[in-house]
Amino acid sequence: MKNPDHNYRILMSLLIVLFIGFAYWAGAFYFFSKKPVADTNILGFEQPITETPSSPVPVIASSSQTFSVIVLPDTQKYSRDNPEIFCNQTRWIVDNARKLNIRFVSHLGDIVDSYGNSIAEWEAASKCMKTLDDARIPYSIIPGNHDVDKHYREDGLSFYDRYFPASRYSSNSWYKGNRKQNQNSYQIIEVPTTNSQNEVVTTKLLFLNLEIEPSDNTIAWANDIVKNNPNTYTILITHKYLPDTPGLNSATDPNAKRDTLREYSRTGNTGEDIWNKLVKDNCSIKVTWNGHYHKSDGEYMMISKNKCNDEVHQIIQDYQAREAGGNGLLRIYTFDPVAKTIDVQTYSPYIKSFEKDADSEFEIPFAIR
């Protein structure tokens, strides 16, 4: 006769094995059933936007009524000496995309400092901008004078074309077209916001990006783009256009002038040429952004009247002459379609600080016809 104690031990062992197996498979089922799914959030991005608690939020908080566009001025010194500052900027953008309703990012050119002489700089810049690619945040980028192969634009932009080709962006619905392998491009975004009656309204913006000292053929292409998108609020972006001229610190100073010196092309157009051949006669161009100039503090705004007698706000921002190549300063443009205003802030996520003087923090009208 078998020992009852032996049978009891066998039965208990079987029960323990069954219990462990059940717990394992139950846990696995729970884990996979709870696995997060990539969603389309309120920003319409196709993957979740992560948020880092340590990233400070600027004073102007986003609401369903407002949205933001971030401007990245010349990053050349970061790419050369401090790529961690550059990547900190793009990481901060992703971390705060939901809070600030960030809809677009504009890079103003001079991506690198050493032309085609440093692969490391191009690799660093591409890696930092890939943070925006991975988060599916729409952005534009243009070549500055330090992004050409040699001194003149006509000598080629082979490294720019290699690292920021049209193929990097062409699958995105907001990327609408280009000229000369993304050396010139335009993007259109449509942003849903709510008005004071809690009704959903859509704001459309066109970002028109031109090479440094654009050629006449490029100006003709740009004119066609604007004319084919009538009544669309347009922001013109080019690297070199309006100087930060010392002494001209009033936006209404009649002596303020766009640049008139051709330096980085053999036959291209200066800032004054761009105004006369493109901006002045296209009344949907409301704002211009450029970098490049940093002889004083790298900030200045000039207001001119176009042929429709509307104001055009032309704004230079470039911080490369500051400590550490700019200390991570960027611009936050907060658009309010209801109040019809654009609030401008200058902020560094690297040193976690705002610049608060009058040409760093101000308001301009959001003049939608």
Description:
By secondary structure, this protein is α/β, with parallel strands linked by helices. Strand 9 and strand 10 (311-317) form a beta hairpin. It has helices at residues 4-33, 76-81, 83-95, 97-100, 119-135, 158-163, 216-227, 271-279, and strands spanning 67-72, 102-107, 139-140, 175-179, 184-194, 200-210, 233-238, 285-290, 299-305, 311-317, 330-336, 341-348, 353-355, 362-365. The strands form two sheets. Strands 1, 2, 3, 11, 12, 13 and 14 form a seven-stranded mixed sheet that branches. A seven-stranded mixed sheet has the order 4-5-6-7-8-10-9, covered by helices on one side. It is globular and about 55 Å long. Helix 3 runs parallel beside helix 5 (119-135). It has one domain (52-365): Purple Acid Phosphatase, chain A, domain 2. It is built from eight helices and 14 strands.
Q: Average pLDDT, to the nearest integer?
A: 86
Succession of helices and strands: HEHHHEHEHEEEHEHEEEEEEE
Q: Given the helix and strand composition, which structural class is it?
A: alpha/beta
Strand residue percentage = 15-25%
Biggest β-sheet description: 7 strands, mixed
Shape: globular
- CATH level 3 topology: Purple Acid Phosphatase, chain A, domain 2
Number of helices: 8
Keywords:
369 residues, alpha/beta, Purple Acid Phosphatase, chain A, domain 2, 7-stranded mixed beta sheet, 8 helices, 14 strands, 26% helix, globular
Helix-strand blueprint:
Elements: H1 4-33, E1 67-72, H2 76-81, H3 83-95, H4 97-100, E2 102-107, H5 119-135, E3 139-140, H6 158-163, E4 175-179, E5 184-194, E6 200-210, H7 216-227, E7 233-238, H8 271-279, E8 285-290, E9 299-305, E10 311-317, E11 330-336, E12 341-348, E13 353-355, E14 362-365
Helix pairs in contact: 3-5
